[in-house]
């Protein structure tokens, strides 16, 4: 492309003819000027040319003085502008155009015949404009034209004349959604004989009046959110061909059985037929005539039609479903009848033979009948929530062996003495009986096979021994939270030995259970109780415990024997208790992959983990406590500790005796304290630290040697402090620093000279300060020229005010001139000389290193050369 062109990108190149060799993506602002394609791509049959042009913020006469030859190569054009009226005269030259996007331009009127010469146009997008009249707009030179996709969605079209789409006989997809169309009586679609998808949703249509009856190959019809009150054979003759029929959110009160009829044998090829009638006012589902139903389904079965059906009748007013209402549907796999007024669900089970998903939630069902479920061998997901069931009948689910999810929440089931679900899906099943008022549950031997997850939360369970699950050997997860359990003893839990996860968030005071019952438990949730003490006998057999949640209790210490046998803890949450002092952790060892201990929000002020305790602890969270003397947090022996969070405490001062932390620590968070000073050598024992957070403190100055010993530190956060002036020489100990945040300090000046010879590029976030634009320009220039390693940056780009490359700054004034000495300007000659000298010395140092490294090798090489003069080296 021409040197004057910005934003022109050749997507691929090569010497052999390739489909992408002459493929261009070009982006322009306001207008199109001076664009030229490579000579080899001009008028060459060997290299197919595709030009994707995007024009943003187009001016009113963007087409002025455009080279017509270039326009003739454009294949895809996207224009973004703000036009009330346009003739789009540019398009008369874009004869190869295949895709045109003019969406979101506020166009109210398009004059003339702008698309007339676009004989190759395949896709046209005019959505999100203000068009009200499209009459005579779609006229083309050639018949038939190639346009197969047209979008007029989100406009203000009210009327469609009968001949508006007369020439678009090749159209496959038409989108007229989100307009104000109120009638289609003139049959504007009658000539669209190739149309497969028609979107008329979100308009004001009241009646179809046969407007689509000539669309014999229409597959998808979207009529959602209109005002349609009736659908019958006369108004919609082609309904039997539709794969997707969405007439949800209309005003239908009755439906004709024709709505469910399809020519099933014409819908093969693993298609899913979707019939969506939700959010209407339908009150009855009538029987389908056996004669009419047989006419469609009988011819389909011999052909083994591979088509599935999904029906959505949710959120209607259905109270009566006649026995053969679904007789004409072929291989129905999903039926949604939720949020209706159904009292009895009694239908022909044979019509539901293939159903995998059945939603009956939000009705008035008080009883389930075997005859409705008897043939549902494929049922996987059953939702019966928000009904009035008070028991589970003994025969209903006799033949259902593939249930994956059964939701019976929000019913009135108080007692279950037999589940009457013999078997769940081979991959396992989930049963949710929460919010029922349940107080007793017994699943006998031979029932509930393959049940893996049982949810019983938010019931009235007060005596846990009445929940008898001893025979549920496949049960992995049990949720008993939000019940009324107060006390537990060694006979309370009748649970299977293989249980892995137990949630007991209740009102428990003492957690005393038979440890053998929980031998295999990996996840135990005891949060939100009233526990004040932990007992060894309850945890003694939990060798597999990995996740323990004891948060929101009333613990004030950790007993010395409780976790003696737990060697696999990954996460221990003890937040929101009342633990003020810990002199011994009493957790000897965490999981081999490492463990996390969270003691935040406890009022903790002292913690000591002696040698031999807390092995393999990698992350320790102590934020939001009362720690004011950091030396009382003694972690010197925690050699596996990688991350420590001490944020949101009350630390005021740090010195060389403050931190008793392990040398291997990688990340330390001291943010949101009240630190005013950091003395020399504070971090001198922490030679492996890579991340240090000191944001949101009260720091105003940095002392010399404050960061001594942090030789591998990479990230330092000093944001939201009170540092007005900073000299980079105070951070000279940080040789590997790569990211420094100085945001929102109210900083007036940053001297970065000591970073001229920094080993790596250093990104410094400086937004939220008062650094001058002159300083910022100088710093950016010195970085770009290679004289400085410091690159200013901004995390938040300002919407208003002065900025340079998206970094905020303040304009120069007399006061800032006093604060900015000669060193704040561009590097002087002696500074540049110093930097150059440093680079030369560094290069010489490297060369000397390699010479010394290999100097002992050369004598032996010379000796070998003398001994074997003919050998080629």
From TrEMBL:
PROSITE patterns in UniProt: LRR
Amino-acid biosynthesis as UniProt keyword: no
Position of the signal peptide: none
A Pfam family assignment: LRR_1
Keyword Repeat: yes
InterPro entries reported for this sequence: Leu-rich_rpt, Leu-rich_rpt_typical-subtyp
Keywords: Leucine-rich repeat, Repeat
PANTHER family named in the record: LEUCINE RICH REPEAT FAMILY PROTEIN, LP04042P
Name of the featured protein: Uncharacterized protein
């Amino acid at each position: 492309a021409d040197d004057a062109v910005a934003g022109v990108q050749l997507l691929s190149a090569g010497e052999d003819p390739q489909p992408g060799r002459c493929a261009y993506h070009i982006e322009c602002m306001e207008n199109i000027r001076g664009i030229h394609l490579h000579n080899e791509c001009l008028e060459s049959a060997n290299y197919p040319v595709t030009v994707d042009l995007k024009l943003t913020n187009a001016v009113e006469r963007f087409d002025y003085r455009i080279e017509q030859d270039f326009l003739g190569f454009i294949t895809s054009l996207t224009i973004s502008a703000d036009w009330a009226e346009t003739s789009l005269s540019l398009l008369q030259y874009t004869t190869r155009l295949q895709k045109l996007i003019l969406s979101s331009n506020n166009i109210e009127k398009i004059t003339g015949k702008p698309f007339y010469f676009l004989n190759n146009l395949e896709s046209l997008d005019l959505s999100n404009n203000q068009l009200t009249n499209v009459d005579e707009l779609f006229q083309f030179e050639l018949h038939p034209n190639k346009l197969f996709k047209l979008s007029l969605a989100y406009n203000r079209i009210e009327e469609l004349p009968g001949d508006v789409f007369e020439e678009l006989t090749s159209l496959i997809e038409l989108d007229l959604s989100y307009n104000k169309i109120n009638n289609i009586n003139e049959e504007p679609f009658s000539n669209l004989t190739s149309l497969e998808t028609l979107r008329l949703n979100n308009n004001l249509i009241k009646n179809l009046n046969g407007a689509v009856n000539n669309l014999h190959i229409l597959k998808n019809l979207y009529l959602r959110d209109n005002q349609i009150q009736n659908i019958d054979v006369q108004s919609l003759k082609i309904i039997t061909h539709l794969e997707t029929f969405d007439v949800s959110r209309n005003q239908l009160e009755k439906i004709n059985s024709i709505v469910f009829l399809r020519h099933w044998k014409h819908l093969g090829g693993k298609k899913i037929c979707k019939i969506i009638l939700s959010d209407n006012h339908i009150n009855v589902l009538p029987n389908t005539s056996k004669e009419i139903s047989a006419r469609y389904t009988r011819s389909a079965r011999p052909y083994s039609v591979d088509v599935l059906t999904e029906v959505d009748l949710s959120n209607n007013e259905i109270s009566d479903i006649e026995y053969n209402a679904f007789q004409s549907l072929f291989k129905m796999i999903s039926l949604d009848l939720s949020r209706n007024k159904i009292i009895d669900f009694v239908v022909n089970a044979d019509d539901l033979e293939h159903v995998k998903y059945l939603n009956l939630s939000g009705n008035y069902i008080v009883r389930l009948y075997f005859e409705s479920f008897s043939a549902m061998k494929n049922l996987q997901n059953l939702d019966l929530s928000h009904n009035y069931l008070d028991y589970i009948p003994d025969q209903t689910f006799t033949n259902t062996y593939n249930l994956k999810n059964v939701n019976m929440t929000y019913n009135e089931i108080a007692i279950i003495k037999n589940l009457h679900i013999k078997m769940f899906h081979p991959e396992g099943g989930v049963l949710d009986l929460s919010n029922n008022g349940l107080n007793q549950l017994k699943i006998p031997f031979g029932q509930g096979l393959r049940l893996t997850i049982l949810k019983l939360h938010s019931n009235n369970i007060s005596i846990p021994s009445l929940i008898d699950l001893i025979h549920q050997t496949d049960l992995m997860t049990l949720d008993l939270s939000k019940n009324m359990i107060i006390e537990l003893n060694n006979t309370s839990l009748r649970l299977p030995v293989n249980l892995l996860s137990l949630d007991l968030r209740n009102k428990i005071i003492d957690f005393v259970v038979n440890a053998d019952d929980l031998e295999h438990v990996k996840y135990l949730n005891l949060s939100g109780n009233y526990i004040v003490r932990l007992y060894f006998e309850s945890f003694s057999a939990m060798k597999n415990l990995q996740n323990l949640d004891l948060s929101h209790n009333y613990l004030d210490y950790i007993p010395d024997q409780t976790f003696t046998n737990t060697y696999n803890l990954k996460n221990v949450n003890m937040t929101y208790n009342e633990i003020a002092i810990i002199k011994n952790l009493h957790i000897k060892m965490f999981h081999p992959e490492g463990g996390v201990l969270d003691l935040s929000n406890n009022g903790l002020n002292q913690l000591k983990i002696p040698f031999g305790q807390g092995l393999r602890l990698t992350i320790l969270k102590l934020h939001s406590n009362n720690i004011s003397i950091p030396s009382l947090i003694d972690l010197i022996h925690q050699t596996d500790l990688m991350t420590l969070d001490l944020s949101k405490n009350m630390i005021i001062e740090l010195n060389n005796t403050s931190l008793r932390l392990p040398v291997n620590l990688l990340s330390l968070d001291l943010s949101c304290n009240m630190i005013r000073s950091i003395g020399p050598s504070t971090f001198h024992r922490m030679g492996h630290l890579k991340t240090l957070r000191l944001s949101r403190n009260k720091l105003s100055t940095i002392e010399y040697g404050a960061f001594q010993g942090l030789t591998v530190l990479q990230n330092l956060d000093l944001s939201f402090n009170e540092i007005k002036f900073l000299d980079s020489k105070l951070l000279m100990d940080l040789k590997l620093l790569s990211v420094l945040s100085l945001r929102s300090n109210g900083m007036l000046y940053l001297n970065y000279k000591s970073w001229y010879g920094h080993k790596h590029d250093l990104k410094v976030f400086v937004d939220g300060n008062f650094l001058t634009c002159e300083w910022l320009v100088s710093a950016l220039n010195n970085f770009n020229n290679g004289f400085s390693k410091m690159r200013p940056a901004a995390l938040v780009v300002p919407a208003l005010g002065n900025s340079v490359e998206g970094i905020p700054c303040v304009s120069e004034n007399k006061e800032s001139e006093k604060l900015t000495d000669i060193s704040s300007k561009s590097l002087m000659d002696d500074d540049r000389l110093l930097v150059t000298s440093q680079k030369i010395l560094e290069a010489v140092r490297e060369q000397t290193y390699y010479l010394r490294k290999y100097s002992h090798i050369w004598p032996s090489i010379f000796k070998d050369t003398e001994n074997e003069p003919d050998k080629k080296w």
